[in-house]
Structure prediction request, 299 residues.
Amino acid sequence: MRDEIVRAITADGWVKAVAITGTGIVERARQIHKTLPMATAALGRALCAASMMGNMQKTEDGSVSLQFRGGGPLGKILAVSDWKGNVRGCVDHPQVSLLEKYRGKLDVGAAVGKDGTLTVIRDLRMKEPYIGTIPLVSGEIAEDVTQYFAQSEQTPTVCALGVLVERDQSVRCAGGYLVQLLPGAPENVISKIEAGIAKVDSVTEMMSRGLDAGAILEAVLEELEPKLLEREPVEYRCNCSRERVEGMLISLGKAELEDVLQKGEDLSVSCQFCDTPYVFTPGDVEKLLHGLSEQEQEQ
Ligand SMILES: [Zn+2]
Prediction:
């Protein structure tokens, strides 16, 4: 099943929805960060949520970042989506050992923790980004995203996410959906959504049966006659470059760079999202410093 996002609107126009199949995305994240199953599940859920939110935002060249800080053993989880839904992410401690609610069921909430916050940063290509922070509900990611929409954006939302890990620790399937009510939606629409969600299996069960993103939305919204709209491919994608890393080094400031230069060794910086190494020789660092002092003179 390929990684893609499908959007839908119901026949009555009160409900918009989006679903993702993101098995490849989460498997790529696992390979880059060498995550064990706990981190694979938590980061995978966050990546799927960010991807859908980025795609829904539809601001050209905008982005959406989700930061989970729950105080659990995984540490901070970060997932960033571009405006199409291509995502990247990282987790502080990718190799936390297994925590299970019961045999075979990962306890993501315990690994993320719930004594903390979810912060959503929406870059809408305006002067300032929109930033919303809520206290975590459970650390299970989907519930926290649902709560974020209710509390911070006043949009009634249902979010479901799932990551299923194989015995060999690879990702068998990963995906999710988001259903949102438009303002003024009548009660009976809400009850139809609730009934639909109660009736369907979990995301990973549906995916295991071969349902793709469109079929998942059709199942969840069956009674509301969903009309499927765009179907767009998404992938794990990092946008790092040598220029960006240079910018980050410059932002460290003159003193810090002079320290590096003093050591006389190559400086190797790895991208936090894709692990690509960028190496700067003392000559390179000197050039950066030179650029920095020229900037200062201009000011
Ligand atoms: Zn990168």
